[in-house]
User: What shape does this take?
Amino acid sequence: QLYERFISGLSNVNPKDLRQAKLGLENLGRIDRGIDELSKSSIYYDTEQGQSVGQIRAKVRRHIVKHPGLKMIMIDYLGLIKLGKADRHDVAIGDVTAALKGLAKEIKVPVVLIVQAKRGNDKSGSQPVMSDLKDSACIEADADVVMFINRPEISDPETELKGITEIIIAKDRHNDGNGTIYMEKVNGTFLPLTMEQAATAAHKEQTRLNPVKEKRGFK
Assistant: This one.
């Protein structure tokens, strides 16, 4: 599934057409180019679940020996990491985030940890905030950057931001770059909207949420 998503994004072929093998000559050519590009990308993945941080660290070290030049580690997700013994769950989570931060410092590459937000947030109609993270205190303390992925149309079908995904930078320890990036999903990959497109969509949404009330009385 992951491989198909990579190919779909790189080749700009609709993932549904790829899965159902509805491919013309043009799409086949795009797929060939996508496969060639992906084969040269040096992307490696491990699907074993329930690993401890110690096991992850050991695998990373072995990988670096075989394939030097590691640029980034992505872990999907915190809930699948085997926790160590601790008096409380939040303490065990804190041990994991602290250990991953230590790993990032040790091998000098960013570690991206995916975390699930609290269930029910998609029905609240509001953007996610730091407190929506499970055991957020530990995660917030150790993370250099915290980003939320939000699709407004999930919580509000009437939104003007249909088809738009918000990347909300809730914390940026080093650059103070808090803000929102607007993107659209095209055939399995996300593309940034232009500043004009993002501004127009955001303005329409704000106008919808805060309509200007007509003044009563004589002019």
